[in-house]
Design a protein that fits this description.
Elements: H1 18-30, E1 35-36, E2 50-52, E3 73-75, E4 84-86, E5 90-92, H2 102-115, E6 118-120, H3 128-132, E7 136-141, E8 158-162, E9 174-175, H4 182-188, E10 196-197, H5 208-221, E11 228-233, H6 237-246, E12 251-255, E13 264-265, H7 266-271, H8 276-289, E14 297-301, H9 307-315, E15 320-323, H10 325-330, H11 339-344, H12 369-372, H13 377-401, E16 415-417, H14 420-426
Parallel strand pairs: 5-15, 6-7, 7-8, 8-11, 11-12, 12-14, 14-15
Antiparallel strand pairs: 1-13, 2-16, 3-4, 9-10
The structure holds iron/sulfur cluster (SF4).
Iron/sulfur cluster is lined by residues 37-38, 328, 333-334, 352-355, 360-362, 364-365.
Length: 439
Amino acid sequence: MSGIDARHLVSASAMFSLEVQQAIHRAAETGTVAIQGLGVSRPVPHFDELVFLGAGLVRRPVEACGEGCKTNVTLGTRHAQRPIQLARPITLAGMSYGAVGYNAKQTLCLAAARSGTSLTTGEGGITDLERQSNGAIIYQLTPGRSGLHPDDLCHAAALEIVVSQGARPGGGGLLPAAKVNERVSQQRRLPPNTAMYSAARHPDWLDADELSLKIRELRELTDWQIPILVKLGATRVAEDVTLAVKAGADVIVLDGMQAGTGSSPSVFVEHVGIPTVAAIRQAVEALQALGLHREVQLVVSGGIRNGADAAKALALGADAVSIGTAALMAIGCNRPIYNFDYHKLGTEAGACHHCHTGRCPVGITTHDVQLEARLDVEAEAEHLQNFLQVMTLEIQALAEACGKRHVLHLEPEDLVALSVEAAAMAKVPLAGTHWIPGV
Ligand code: SF4
């Protein structure tokens, strides 16, 4: 080290890390706000910080080889004549045609129908694939209104009013011009190759009182047959859930900050909303305060990756979970093939979050004919069915280990936390103690 003081050979500043420096350079050079797909990239508290207390002498496990543990769930029992019956407590989240390509939409439709679960349309209206699907299709009413048509309401198993979504609570959507091909432009009634910025709030109602009128209107349009869901990005959860339920929601869809997105400003994805694990108990307590927990069902989404995450969400009081990013991964997102095309995007398999570019290497979030042809609909539908089945078996295994005969019998008492932060957020004891911080 001749002549060099080793103390000066430091790595990048913790404050101005390499990523922060790159972001500043990019903003300075382009003058544009950074956009990203997929979801939050930095670590935030999540379900990994919770573990189950299996059975022992105090609780006895349920034998899996006997009757086992049931998994069926019904959504929308509060008012609807035809609630949604699900074979498993897992639904497929809203992924719009536009954000994903036609083959991906077809894959999701097939897998949902064959797995006895529901698929939500996402912004941009209902596609012919969804109209013809044998499965339960939940039709989203988003602030942007793109592709919305009143005639389509009757094709749906339920309606979902999107107040906000976890990846960008308080923000509108963006469909980049690269993803508005001829078919998407017809579906959304947009000129081709034109970026679509959708509204952050609904044009026809402003507050909870007007939301209640909107829900009433939708019920009458659909003859009180189908459930009305209200989707909320997780922010002021207790207050928002209370208002949505008082406005008449049958089901609350609660979307934490780890939720996926096809294309959103990075500043929203990384810095707005609260983690899913912190949101669930607030929602459950709001429902309990209204005396409506389990009568108004709670569907939780935002970073659900496997059966363990789902089982923990159920134990905290959810009735079902919804998966988006994990479903896309099951059908090939970030799969290490076509590495050359990942490199062209400046990334590699396993680190790709470039859905907004319209150049998805595995053919999911693209409308490019050659790229889209890489997605084998039948094979990937089977992969997603397998994944849903594995998740269900994992939830069952955990519930049986906790002595439950139905997955909805899981409860907060079955969980402890591995960190003080997770204990405070999930309101379960720190492992090895009876201490719940703040309670
Ligand atoms: S592989 Fe495709 S779907 Fe997955 S993050 Fe990249 S662009 Fe998006």
